Amino acid sequence: MDLITLLVVLFSLSWACFNFLRSNSSRRKLPPGPYPFPIIGNVLQLIGQMPHQSLTKLSKTYGPLISLKIGSQNIVVASSPEMAKEVLLTHDHVLSGRTVVAAMEAQNHNISSMPFLPVGDTWRKIRKICREQMFSTHQLDISEDLRREKLQKLREYVNECCVSGRAVRIEQAALTTTLSLLSSTLFSVDFGNHDSNSTLEYKEVIQGVVDTVSAPNLADFFPILKRFDPQGIKKRAEVHFEKLLGIFENIINQRLESRKNNTGGPKKKDMLEALLDIREGNEGYLSCSDIKHLLFVS
């Protein structure tokens, strides 16, 4: 063995020992959990169609707060109501930072999306808007009749299928009702019709976004692969995100034109109208791009 080969071997062994010690040191600061295998981490403990059941079994061994390693990423799982409260309420500011998955970086969505923004002025402003305009008790009370109406339509659709002997696709029926309720609440446009193909494109785009974002991505577990996008998930996300944001942009432009010309009847009382009022008011920190991404999150 020549000198250069010997130096390379010694350097490799030293680097491996350093990473091993650093990994053990970092794990001592984490909650208990199963010991990870090299490279893959705890992936084998979660393999299967129902990973939530695997997590339940692990919680019985390691407690309600578990640390796992998926690839090179450390993950902490809260598996009890008490621990979830600690994470989401008691220590929410400390633990509010989230890892941005590769798919969510499509169309720079992570830059304007409240769930992925770091805690700061922008995050607080957008959070305030969501709290006051979307999730307040007043807003929920206003939309109560709308929710009853959409559920009644779902009931009528299921009853028609029963009478005619048609099969009811539960997943599709639930998606249609959800889209109908959300689109009516957000911008007073009904994108859900159980027997119409007019909103097929919108449904396909939404389904494409959901499938892409929820797909397991190696680049999320091994960040070194993110720039290569080995499974093409980021590329597909770019396509679906662009289509959905384009739909929102058309709706926003139509509403702005309607407001400018005072057409379209009485002023609408939906989420888009409230966001445009904020944009045009004294709180001019909200751009049209921010509104598109807020509607996306909704």
Short description:
Keywords: Heme, Iron, Membrane, Metal-binding, Monooxygenase, Oxidoreductase, Signal, Transmembrane, Transmembrane helix. The protein is mainly alpha-helical and 298 residues long. The chain has 14 helices and two strands.
Kindly report the average pLDDT value: 81
Q: What is the helix tally?
A: 14
Name the poorly predicted regions.
Answer: 6-18
N- to C-terminal separation? 63 Å
Number-wise, the strands total 2
Integer-rounded radius of gyration? 24 Å
Total number of domains: 2
Write out the strand line-up for the largest beta sheet, numbering strands in chain order: 1-2
One letter per element, helices H and strands E, the order comes to HHHEEHHHHHHHHHHH
- What is the CATH superfamily classification of the largest domain? Cytochrome P450
The biggest beta sheet, please? 2 strands, antiparallel
Helix content: 55-70%
CATH topology descriptor of the largest domain: Cytochrome p450
Annotated CATH architecture of the largest domain = Orthogonal Bundle
Percentage of residues in DSSP E strands: under 5%
What structural class is derived from the secondary structure elements?
mainly alpha
Organism: Buddleja alternifolia
InterPro entries: Cyt_P450 (IPR001128), Cyt_P450_E_grp-I (IPR002401), Cyt_P450_sf (IPR036396)
Keywords: Heme, Iron, Membrane, Metal-binding, Monooxygenase, Oxidoreductase, Signal, Transmembrane, Transmembrane helix
Protein name: Cytochrome P450
